[in-house]
Amino acid sequence: MATQREDSRRNWTSTSTIQEINSGCLQRIADATEKMAENYDSLLRSNRYLREREEDLTKENRRLARRISALQGVITRQKNKVTI
After folding, report:
1. pLDDT at position 62, please?
2. Which residues, at least 6 apart from 23, have a Cβ–Cβ distance to it below 8 Å?
3. By three-state DSSP, how is residue 17 classified?
4. Dihedral (C-alpha) 62, 66, 69, 71: value to the nearest 10 degrees?
5. What mean pLDDT value characterizes the chain?
6. CA angle at 42 for the pair 47 and 53, rounded to the nearest 5°
7. What pLDDT is stored for residue 2 in this prediction?
8. Confidence band (pLDDT; 50, 70, 90) for 15?
9. Comparing C-alpha atoms, which of 3, 37, 4 is closest to residue 18?
């Protein structure tokens, strides 16, 4: 015997009642809604990861910029020592 979910996909027959068909349709709608929610949750997780990654890379970029600046200062001091 087919389930109400399967019956709702088929053409209406005289053995199926409107109530059974409607019940199957509602079950299929619920399944589709859950599937959409899975995709949405996946997008949220991806978004959260990308935000955290962007924050980490921004911090690293700032750290490296400060390091470059400090090393340029060291180079300038060394050049000044040599020319004096």
Report:
1. 98
2. 4, 8
3. coil
4. -130
5. 85
6. 30
7. 57
8. low
9. 4
Q: How far is CA 58 from CA 3, 61, 68, in A?
A: 54, 5, 15
Measured CA to CA, the distance from residue 71 to residue 60 in angstroms comes to 16
**pLDDT, tens only, 33-67:** 988 899 899 999 999 999 999 999 999 999 999 99
| Alpha-carbon separation of residue 38 from 29, 33, 45, 48 (angstroms) | 14, 9, 11, 15
Residues 16 and 25 sit within 8 Å (Cβ to Cβ): no
Contact yes or no for 8/27 (Cβ under 8 A): yes
